[in-house]
User: Which sequence fits this backbone?
């Protein structure tokens, strides 16, 4: 066997031409369509190319219907009977086969939006009233009139039906953990070092409240649309019907789709709202990354155990391991999602002169970006559901660090005017082990009221949690934002 043959044998054979048509998840280039396909399924009808084509068809049909019967356009009458029924059918029963036909037409036109127009002409041919109206298909439109509204409807659909419910589910999970562990004391770590204690529930509440704010930002982001022709000036509209109030007609059309009206654009709607939405989602993801890394760290410290699943393997060689793979998976997917979201947020609002095509090809990655969000959030929720707190491990850590009470002691000393309290506690404790007995011996020397001294002597690291429990319960009971 010569070297070339040997190398081919080692590499294996490629997928043959005969197998190409059967390609599926195992040959997908994107993990959202391969390994994680099931986790991204909820977004496919909205954000796939099928979703884009479907929404283009909807916009084209709705525009035709919007024009029909307007007094300014006497040649186009409202559609009734069989014509109206066919328009309903085209919109409501749009299928993968319909999308495939449009792609076939596109292979000839080399233009995706024009292919939609030609597909609709084909569908209209069998119905006389629609066939007679085919001249008003895509009337006075530029492709971006169709595209910007299609993407607006797609992203709104994905946000309302999939993203916001999943964001709410994640924050509800954290809210439940905040309530469950509201009074479970835990050693804090600032700069990675032992610090004033908190409760596990309060830390979950803190993360959940941050997510609630960014979820609200994403939900309140206005979704804009435009419908004003090739460069935003109604040039063709006014050439055909100079007396029509085209701005009012277009405003009503966009509003009728449930979108906010952008009255002043170039050929493209400038995508500023998409940047706002994607920035809000990226901020939500950044907080999720913070959560994933903290959970990973607390598992490493032993504060959390993870439930084991029968048949599951943690390591191919170390049988004992249960790895925090859900939090690691979330971190990786949310990082990739944010890279895409932030690129799109920076790129999409920038277009040369009246438009260039770079926004179009970039925006096709919106589905991949939002799939990464969804995959990451699902992983976080799986990971959180497996966590079991270890109160004994947390109590042992607290008991080993009596030095965290020096903050309380020096603050009480300040109240009663004892000179240099911070410096005295620093000399006692900084970089040194400090036991309960050592701390109590120091407290006994203080010339402060007996009641204050007894309060300090009664403190333990486990009881020195301030109002953490109250904060956690207040948020868990709906008192947060």
Assistant:
């Amino acid at each position: 066997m010569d070297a070339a043959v040997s190398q081919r044998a080692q590499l294996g054979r490629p997928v043959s031409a005969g197998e190409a048509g059967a390609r599926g998840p195992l040959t997908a280039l994107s993990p959202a369509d391969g390994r994680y396909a099931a986790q991204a399924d909820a977004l496919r009808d909205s954000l796939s190319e099928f979703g884009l084509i479907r929404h283009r068809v909807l916009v084209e049909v709705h525009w035709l219907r919007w024009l029909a019967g307007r007094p300014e356009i006497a040649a186009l009458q409202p559609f009734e009977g069989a014509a109206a029924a066919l328009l309903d059918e085209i919109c409501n029963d749009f299928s993968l086969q319909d999308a495939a036909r449009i792609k076939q037409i596109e292979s000839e036109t080399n233009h995706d939006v024009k292919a939609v127009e030609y597909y609709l002409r084909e569908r209209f041919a069998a119905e006389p009233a629609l066939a007679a109206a085919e001249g008003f298909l895509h009337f006075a439109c530029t492709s971006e009139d169709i595209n910007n509204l299609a993407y607006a409807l797609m992203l709104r659909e994905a946000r309302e039906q999939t993203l916001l419910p999943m964001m709410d589910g994640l924050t509800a999970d954290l809210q439940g953990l905040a309530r469950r562990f509201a009074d479970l004391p835990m050693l804090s770590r600032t700069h990675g070092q032992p610090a004033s204690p908190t409760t596990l529930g309060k830390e979950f509440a803190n993360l959940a409240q941050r997510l609630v704010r960014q979820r609200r930002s994403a939900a309140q982001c206005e979704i804009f649309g435009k419908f004003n022709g090739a460069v935003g000036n109604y040039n063709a509209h006014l050439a055909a019907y100079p007396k029509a109030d085209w701005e009012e007609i277009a405003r009503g059309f966009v509003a009728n789709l449930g979108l906010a009206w952008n009255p002043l654009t170039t050929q493209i709607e400038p995508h500023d709202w998409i940047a706002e939405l994607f920035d809000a989602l990226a901020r939500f993801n950044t907080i999720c990354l913070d959560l994933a890394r903290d959970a990973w760290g607390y598992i490493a410290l032993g504060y959390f155990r993870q439930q084991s699943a029968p048949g599951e393997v943690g390591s191919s060689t170390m049988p004992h391991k249960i790895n925090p793979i859900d939090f690691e998976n979330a971190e990786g997917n949310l990082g990739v999602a944010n890279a895409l979201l932030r690129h799109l947020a920076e790129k999409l609002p920038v277009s040369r002169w009246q438009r260039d095509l770079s926004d179009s090809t970039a925006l096709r990655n919106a589905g991949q970006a939002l799939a990464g969000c969804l995959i990451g959030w699902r992983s976080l929720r799986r990971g959180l559901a497996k966590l079991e707190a270890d109160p004994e491990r947390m109590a042992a850590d607290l008991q080993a660090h009596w030095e965290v009470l020096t903050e309380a002691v020096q603050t009480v000393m300040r109240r009663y005017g004892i000179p240099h309290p911070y410096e005295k506690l620093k000399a006692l404790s900084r970089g040194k082990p400090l036991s309960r007995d050592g701390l109590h011996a120091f407290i006994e020397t203080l010339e402060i009221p007996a009641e204050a001294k007894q309060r300090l002597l009664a403190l333990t690291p486990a009881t020195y949690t301030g109002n953490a429990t109250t904060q956690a319960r207040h948020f868990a009971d709906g008192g947060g934002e």
Summary: The beta strands are 185-190, 193-199, 224-225, 260-261, 304-306, 387-389. The first strand starts at residue 185 and ends at 190. The chain has a mean pLDDT of 93.
